[in-house]
Amino acid sequence: MRIVRLRLCALCALLLVPVTASNAAPPEGRGRAPFARVRDIETKWRSFVAERGSTGTLPAPVQPAGAPGFEHVVKRVGKISRDRVRGPRPGQRDTQVEPDIAIDPNDPSTIVAVFQQGRFRDAGSAAPGYATSHDGGDTWTTASLPNLTVATGGRWARASDPVVATGPRGAVYAQTLVLGDKRCATGIAVQRSDDGGLTFRRPVIVRQDRCNAFNDKNWIAVDTNAGSPHFGRIYALWDRFVFRDNRARIVVSFSDDRGKTWSRLREVSRGRFAIGVIPLVGPSGDVTAVYWALAGRRTGVLAQTSADGGKSWSAPVKIGSNRGREPFGIRAPPLPTAAVDPVTGTLYAAWQDGRFRTDPAQDIILSRSLDGGRSWSVKRRVNPDSPTSGRDHFTPDVAAYGGLVHVTYRTRRITGRHTDLVDERYIASDDGGLIFGKELVLGPPSDLDYAAEVTGKDAFLGDYMGVAALGDTAHAVWCRSSRDGGDRGNKHQNTWSATITVTRGP
Hints:
Helix content is 4%, strand content 45%. By secondary structure, it is mainly beta. It has one domain (4-56, 66-504): 6 Propeller (Neuraminidase). A five-stranded antiparallel sheet has the order 1-6-5-4-3, with no helix packed on it. Strands 23, 24, 25, 26 and 27 form a five-stranded antiparallel sheet that branches. The chain has a four-stranded antiparallel sheet with strand order 2-32-31-30, with no helix packed on it. It starts with a strand and ends with a strand.
């Protein structure tokens, strides 16, 4: 494994075509090629979004008077990794997409980010990678997750949707969706690091299905609360589309031995079509799953909570309707993001939504729960521009610590010039998400002319970006496409990070 020292994505299923169709036999009793019916999932999902993605006419919530009493210091903004994997064609080389990031709660100097590398247009990537800092984001080491895909000595054709979480005893867990071995399987893989994210072990398969079901849009969380009855438990959640039932349900599996073995699969949601789950572990050890239900008796952004370590789950609580949509020419679906404040226990959920706009753009809206997910506040706009600004906002992420709430998101002007330039922006609140301060632009913009592409030629920066927080410091991660390093027509998309420190007033 080559380590270089540097200084300062659900919806795979929706766009999937066979990745090993040339050497995979059709499933027994079926005349269709492996994953052929996954095209139906894309059709369903896009029809759901079209129905619910129109702008609304509700008035925007009134922001409380007053000004936040804090200041920002932004430092260490820059590239932390570049895709150097020589993956198989037709993968798009020199493309890193869809990052996530985590901080070790016992060691704020340890930060780990993960991302896809060598993105294929139809689904997945050649080899997910990671970047690790042990000095608070000053310098980074970067490599590929080993023994996972064929490109890194593993058996899987591709992998996607990388996410990362930290656990007790300095453990770091990288989770991926694995795709397309010769038996048309999909699965969920977890790899552990015991040296703070510098190296990772071989993958452990949490779940594998063949042609009867498709696993997608995974997420991972670890209980790091010393007083919890499930301290150290790792939770893996994702949506599982069963072709026979024509349903996509949120499922969960957990591990109590640092990822070596995993529990049997349990269903969380029971609706017809759910996707985009984020698990949140509260200070007491309760686990709340936030996800998007697109079809069934109850639709919108929902939450369900488990008080027994993931064995059973409450009835779904509706956080709000989802009136988001994909921006024109960019694959950026309105998936929810969510976070828990480990100090206060407050839960936060956010997503892109057009209900408060009078132009064709979208806002980032936020709701919070003060009672462990049983009830949720009214939705409020996070971004400060007017509903007629002509600036679109999408792909949010949220992190919180001690009442300080950090939100990141992408923006693009959809009226006037420069519509191919996409920013990464940051905004914060020091009162639990009631009043937000000044909006910051992090680094130079992305130029979509050099972005990775998905089927249909849409630009793809990722279904999610990342932000993590500890104390008064947040670390953001995003993928930036630019001309640097290549001629026009070539793809060039790197992973970038920034450190933001908030200084609160007296």
